[in-house]
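Page 47, continued from p. 46.
Same chain as before, 637 aa.
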Amino acid sequence: MLILIFSNDILTDRVKGHLAAEKELTVSTYRSIIRGFQSQADIIYYNRINVKDVIDLYKRVPDASEAERAEIRKKLYSLLLPVYRNISLYHLKQMHFHLSNNESFLRFHRPERFGDDLTGVRDSVAYVNRTHKPVSGFEEGRIFNGYRFVYPLFDGNDYLGSVELSISMQTILERIRDDIHADAHFIILADTVKSKVFPDEQNYYAPSELFGDYMHEKALGPNHTPETAALIRNYIRENGPLDKVLARGNAFNFFEFDEQTLHAITFVPVVNAISQHTVAYLIIDRKHEDLQTRFNQYKIMAFVIIALLALLFYLLYRANLQRNAIEIDKRQLQSLIDLQRNVVILTDGHTLKFANRFFYESFNYDSLEHFLEEHDCICDLFIADDRFFHLGKVPEGKQWVKALMETPATRRIVKMLDREGTPRVYTVSVNPIPGHRYIVVFTDISLTILNQRELEQRASRDKLTHAYNREFLDASFHKLCHSANAQQKLLGVIMVDLDHFKRINDTYGHNRGDEVLKMFVSIIRHAIRQEDFIIRWGGEEFLLLMMVDSLHSLVAIAEGVRERIENATFEGVGQITASFGITLYHDGDNLKNTVARSDKALYEAKSSGRNMVIVDDALIVDGDHPFEHTEKEKAES
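Result:
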């Protein structure tokens, strides 16, 4: 019985470890996607909505009559209609203006519906109108649900109301499907739909076929794919209903087999932006053909370990009766353990007593004696990396095996160098046996860790151009500033924007526009140094960050990039130009202000005729504009 329990514990630990890694990757991907859309919404708000023309029009609403409000509504709709039509480029869906009393003023997706009081229905709108601070997150609406980005509107110090941009769950599901190659579905509490959505709009929802308290949005496609629905039904049939688990509002997942493949089904909670209560779930179904093979190996390993333990107990029992036969039995045990492709050792917590052949092959030792000449314990090989278990985490006076046994299964991971000096990552299971001994099994999971790192890397890159994205810049900007100061360099910031890019999209289509953006980034990448950074700021705008010795050096680099772009031929389009705005990071400045200065210089370059480099006015000394100086020198030559 103990042997069976031990075997089950080994497999259970492996399953828990893989499920925890799967849940972390899925939730991290989901959060990264939301952060990306937050950045896109910020760009539209700060550059297209929170501008003078819009504010001057909107500030007339509070004192206007109903007839005047109708005229203002019409003018605001006409003014921002091109922006609303183009927000699809950012995968945004709605634009909605609200008055300071929570009254709906203009829905661009339903302009005929206005004047309804959103109090008690749209808590995010009420929050912004009450606090005058922006808020973002999931919220159910009167027509659609989705992720809302709600911003305050001011005329100087006078508060006018708020404006909302949002993305649909359809867009989020598509991004998840693309990023982690999984089926993704969405369910929302039925009570939430019935209490928030207009009665005549509720026909856009249907009851969930699997969960009685939930509904799904018809526009998102079927309830679930037949394959996913069958897997969840199988799990419920074997383990019982999921209603209580769903009610807790936490992320959870499980593995389920179909006829040929292992699936990880992960439920990711969707939390209301204001109440912080879970009101919906994303259900993500990802195939794991590699793990299915690995679990089969675990079962074989468990069987072998059972045999090993049975043999070991037998040997211990026979020790008092047949001492002279022990050496023969040891050789038989060694042969059996040597079949394992995992590292298997026997230790008393201090000294290595026994190891299989794969141990010696992995770490380049000829024998146990050879190992003990250099070390006492395998724990001496653990690399001190805080992401993994190592001796630095063992309390003073405690054995490392006991400390490891008290560590949660998902964190029983160590890092060691193999015979080639390559870092390898192992999950560890510790199994105590009589005589204060422990059988310890190390299973190599380096490939799983590499896959996780690859997903993390992808999360910091723009999917189309492979330039870095804004999430990378937000996380790295202060490090770059510190590095520049440490090297006594200046940190240059260049905002570059393709001239007339909208005309390219309108004339040749968005697919050709995408190809132009990819070639545009490729030209820049070959024109700058390897250590410089290119970040997609939004649409056709990019930031270049680089360390330079002087402002003139930065201008020269920008001019070189500009000339390369001007002289290049873009397939199917021809020649294209770009405009550049330049500034330098100031000590104590923040990312927002630094980028704003380069954006202002870019705006001047656009206004002055495009295809030129303009330096931030704050950097001009005694009327000497570095770019203009360069142009004079070129003319004289």
